[in-house]
Amino acid sequence: MTPSINQQKNLKQFLSLQSNIPADLQHLLIAVSEACATISGHVGRGALADIAGGILGSAGSENVQGEVQKKLDIISNDILIEAGQRSGVLAAMASEEMDEILPLDLTSDLTSSSGSSDKQQGNYLLLFDPLDGSSNIEVNVTIGTIFSILTAPKTDATEADFMQPGTRQVAAGYVLYGPQTLLVLTTGDGVNAFTLDRENNVWLLTQEKLSIPADTKEFAINMSNQRHWEAPVQRYISELLAGKTSARGKDFNMRWVAAMVTDVHRILTRGGIFMYPRDAREPDKPGKLRLMYEANPMSFLVEQAGGASTNGKQRILDLQPTKLHERVAVFLGSKNEVEQVTGYHLE
Ligand code: F6P
């Protein structure tokens, strides 16, 4: 559903009208959205950015996954960290680009008149992939930020406090840096999209209650990995490729941007199934994508839009995380297709 131009609420107005979003969570969402508007400005300047050597290209370092960090990965990470610190409502943050969590102490030891130390900390934990699909930066293809918000413990936050299943997320979303800059958000009551009015630097509600059709004729997978897949994925994809000549009885089309955020946005817009299965290249790792700041927020959004998301066997949102940068196989999107491929894994 698209609201008419004169009905468009901005993000602040929209959040203030939602009865399920406490004021400090609204504040955090605004802080994240402002940080992403700043990142959007950097992405948009590309080679014009005022940074020695330009903004495009490698930062000359690697993240904890062993992936080359781009300058824009680091800049985006710093912008989100600064916004999270300033928000004053976080207990800790975690990012794809940081090996460990970043705990925050809001009051840095307020000492009371009795001499006792009275530490305070915020109510939330923020996780993010500051720039997903960053291999697309140089080729000027859409990339994005993905984020997930959990509630925090009452005492000093540790990595163990982040180990909450995706069902416990209180909000999740992504921002797409494409022809338009879009924020797609859920707080557990459907999925709504906001477009950044770049001239006025304000997010306007442009799509309400996004909905993923249960059936689709479109799939997204990196076909070059075919020889490494397990049998259920081989079976499912061979049927999609055979199309009308298989038991499926219809032809399928394929799309692969190699930026999860962009592939998932296409699915939230017109349906489809996105897959990054585990494969034989790294048998000790259950897939390429990260559970806590990629698969969980995307699964929350997809389910809120009426789709489904599994690791082939289980609902992703039910998985109990065991470490911050844990990986997971992902099958998400149109419900009937996700059920079909999950069924093949369970047979
Ligand atoms: O975060 C990892 C990621 O960049 C995803 O955004 C994307 O879906 C995937 O990797 C692309 O992987 P590949 O390069 O194997 O196609």
What can you tell me about this protein's structure?
The protein is α+β, with helices and mostly antiparallel strands. The chain has two domains: 11-207, 2-Layer Sandwich (Fructose-1,6-Bisphosphatase, Chain A, domain 1), CATH 3.30.540; 218-346, 3-Layer(aba) Sandwich (D-Maltodextrin-Binding Protein, domain 2), CATH 3.40.190.80. The chain is 29% helix and 24% strand. It has helices spanning 11-16, 23-45, 71-87, 159-162, 231-242, 260-270, 291-304, 335-346; strands spanning 58-62, 68-70, 90-95, 102-103, 110-111, 117-118, 124-132, 143-151, 171-177, 181-186, 191-197, 202-207, 218-220, 253-254, 273-276, 289-290, 308-310, 327-328, 330-333. An eight-stranded mixed beta sheet has the order 4-3-7-8-9-10-11-12, sandwiched between helices. A five-stranded mixed beta sheet has the order 14-13-15-19-17, sandwiched between helices. Strands 1-2 form a two-stranded antiparallel ribbon. A hairpin with a 5-residue loop joins strand 5 and strand 6. Helix 2 (23-45) packs antiparallel against helix 3 (71-87) and helix 5 packs across helix 8. The protein binds 6-O-phosphono-beta-D-fructofuranose (F6P). The site of 6-O-phosphono-beta-D-fructofuranose (F6P) has 10 residues, from loops.
CATH architectural arrangement of the largest domain: 2-Layer Sandwich
Main β-sheet description: 8 strands, mixed
What's the N-to-C terminus distance?
A: 38 Å
Q: Helical residue percent?
A: 25-40%
* Assigned CATH superfamily of the largest domain: Fructose-1,6-Bisphosphatase, subunit A, domain 1
Spatial order of strands in the largest sheet? 4-3-7-8-9-10-11-12
Give the overall form. Answer: globular
